[in-house]
Specification:
With about 220 residues, the chain is an alpha/beta fold. The chain has 2 domains: about 5-90, Methionine synthase domain (Methyltransferase, Methionine Synthase (B12-binding Domains), Chain A, domain 1); about 95-220, Rossmann fold (3-Layer(aba) Sandwich), CATH 3.40.50. Helices cover about 60% and strands about 10% of the residues. It has 9 helices and 5 strands. The longest helix has 26 residues, at about 65-90.
């Protein structure tokens, strides 16, 4: 964080403060004119959304702020995605299938959207089933989609219980060994991974891609 320029700090602050009229033009200028690395700009967006999530948990922000935050990130992402594809290209053949969703009780989709986006441009076939997803919907989608990896996303601390419950439902359905499970979002660490029963956790989208690559290379 100390390595940010004044302009980068300003972008994070404006995004976190819901200052859409200032934040979006700055993000566009950084991407299109200043040629800042689009992954770095998305990282700044994620840092801002971490602040938004904390303010939501503390009762300072409410659902409308979360919706606006998501819309702002979508706008920035729509500019950043083609730039990342131009610089890195995409794999011709899909590497594997990933199903991802935010667990029930949580409406955050910022981190999930970045992970979905990064998996997509790195050659994975990704199905995003949205937010506030109950365990049974995950099970139904897994049966239909047959993914190699399932990603459970959640930002709020209550999401940890939902992740544990969802993974427990997979076990009850007899499908737990059919795929790998990664979790991410918020303050997730090894303690949370162990509590939920997931195979691994990722602190950012780059780690999520690395996990999927390793798992699918091993099982291929």
């Amino acid at each position: 964080m100390n390595d940010w320029t004044e302009e980068e700090r300003q972008l994070v602050e404006w995004l976190a403060d819901m200052n859409e009229d200032e934040a979006l033009p700055l993000a566009k200028r950084m991407l299109l004119q200043d040629k800042v690395d689009p992954m770095h700009v998305l990282g700044l967006c994620r840092a801002a959304m971490d602040i938004v999530g904390k303010r939501f948990e503390e009762g300072e922000y409410f659902l409308p702020e979360l919706v606006l935050a998501g819309e702002m990130l979508d706008t920035v992402g729509a500019i950043a995605k083609p730039l990342i594809k131009l610089s890195g290209g995409t794999a011709a053949a899909k590497l594997g299938k990933v199903l991802i969703g935010t667990v029930h009780g949580d409406l955050h989709d910022i981190g999930k959207n970045i992970v979905t986006f990064m998996l997509d441009i790195n050659g994975f076939e990704v199905k995003d089933i949205g937010v506030d997803v109950p365990a049974q919907k995950f099970i139904d989608e897994i049966k239909a989609y047959e993914p190699d990896v399932v990603g459970l996303s959640g930002f709020l601390t209550l999401a940890f219980d939902s992740m544990k419950e969802t993974i427990g439902a997979f076990e009850s359905a007899g499908m737990r060994k059919d795929f790998k499970i990664m979790i991410g979002g918020g303050q997730i660490d090894e303690t949370v991974r162990s509590y939920t029963g997931a195979d691994a956790f990722g602190v950012n989208a780059v780690e999520a891609v690395a996990l999927c690559r390793n798992w699918i290379r091993v099982t291929a």
